Amino acid sequence: MVRTIGRLILLLVSLLILTSRSQAEERILWFSIGDGVTNTTNMQNAINFAVANNFNAICFLARYRANAYYIPNRDYSTYPNPEPNQSGGAGDSLQFMIDRAHEAGLRVYAAFSCFLVTDGSDTYPSFLPSGSVIWIYKDVTAPNATNDTTYNPDPGYPRATTTSDTPEGLWADPGRNDVQTYTRNVLKDLVQNYDIDGIILDRIRYPGDALPHRNEAYGYNPQALADMGLTNPGPGSTAFINARRQAIANFISAARADVHAMKPWIIFGAAPVVYGTSLTDTYSTVFQYFPLWNTMSNSDHVNGLGILDMIAPQYYRSTASANAALMDLAKPDVTNMSHQATLYTGTEPAAEMAQSICDTRNASRGMTGFGIFSYNGVSASGFMSTLNATATSPCGTGVMASASPLVNYTLKVNWDSVKPNNITNLTADVSQPGRVRLTWSTPAAASDGDVPARYLVYRSTSTPVKLYYANLVNKNFVVTGNEFIDDGSKGLTAGTYYYKVIPVDDYNNKGDSNTVGPVTPSFPEFIVESRSGGQNYTKYSEISGDWQNSTSKSTASGVTSGIGSRFATLDTKNDVARFTLAGIPGVPAGQHYYKIYYTTNNVSSTNCMNCTYRVRTASGVVSGTFDVIPANTGNTWYQVGGVFLLDSSNAYFEVDSSSSTTTPNGTNTRLPTDAVKFSFVEYHPVTLSHFTLE
User: Cross-referenced InterPro entries, in alphabetical order (predicted)?
Assistant: First the structure.
């Protein structure tokens, strides 16, 4: 009988493990500061490694110490974000990771370090709220040392911290309302501008009190105390402990609500610490209080509770047994959040980590996956082979030898992972100058009944069309309906292109489309040359000055060779020549947008510094200056000014030597007038957000 019961228990445990292993689990590869967050080669290698080793998600460090490995206020500047982009040569590290990781089929999390704001430096960032550095309290000097609940600081305390107190760097005080507001704005800016799948908060805590608290306690910034409604609290008093716990929980709750109000599909997570062999330090020295996080309200959860979608404590013990004990301690306090483990190669050997991974699959723990910190450690020679070769109980070997589907966060209200159906009939029309007209039909409803809510338009000069941000046309506006006009207002220029239009449902699931192309939109030009035999030379005239023929001629593309050009010397500096726009075939008469280009020959005597140009636009004459010298205009088309709204019935371009700062020297200082080109950009009216309108 005993033997039979034992076999049943063993069978039950095995079934629990097997059931767990057959289910989806999150497998997150962390890519952090030491892995090369500004090195695109390292990032691509990490993505390749993740795919090859059956990870299904990657967590990239977006904010480290009040800085950005992304571009703050990139497309939208709704929320203030003064933090410096430190992507270096990568330009936009986070976007590179999003583009390539999504291309590889990985879920992308952004790690966001909250309140540690300098990297070992005593220089507090000037753009953070003034005076918001955290303060320290001590009561250790006899006879002043008393119990934890009494406010009786040593002389000089409490005071603002320095790195002698917190060697990692300076912390902003989480108890201050302005710190919370500032940090939430930075997070909202990141979320609004980047297509991430999730956020994982880090350093979402206080630096860490000593025990007893009177030996070293944090959170005494005067404004923080006022904001928490406290006056001279004892360092270990219940009121002060609870207030700091509440400050952290309030920030998480408010930040989550911010994020989900913008993008409800984002998985909102955190990686809190679990120090020691119990949760005492976690709950009462850094004030990450899981029971509060678990029971606070959340209208975006099906059961209305739990302020995180995912909690992934840092189970950083050196043995699997110690980590498993901590997982079990945390379990009853995280029931309303998806519980995962963050494991660390720096403390846990590969063989022990294999068992820790197995332990996350024990169905009795109710966990949904794990992450490994970080790429450099897990990719070290022999680590993964040892991890997969280790015989774990009861999972056996190969704990990461096969792939796993992504976790569905069904604890979230309206969670949806069903992609919309694909567009199959995308077409492109280039019959109008300067435009590509894309049309498509709305795909049939997907299996969940959803049709696309919006579309992403991608333009590329090559095929296949990469779904990268650089190719995205509608970066800062939404496309709906079944037609899109690509034109100069969206950055379209002369060239040959391929397009995709990606359907997106209301939960950010994306389908695909057929590719159209190659298509080559026309951008008609009207060239006026200054000598007989040249294009439209009758539209050239000399208003004043001493003009002469020259045998020299620009070799810029499109001009007529062998006809020479006209020039004036700068002796009297009263030389004015005009180039007049007339109708361009294919472009309707009326007002349209143009760029204007000027070209000269390349002889050394071409020298009219600060020459005036005048343009008759649809609203009147505008003017400016430019340098007519070989380095600018010689044998090339030099763009003068920005974009001009011109009426083809009266538009012209004039060049005038009267403002030139060149010292006259006979024929050695010339203003040549080889040719001007009026280049069609776009029909009027449109908003030319990509150009400077003159």
Answer: Divisome_Glycosyl_Hydrolase, GH, GHL10, Ig-like_fold
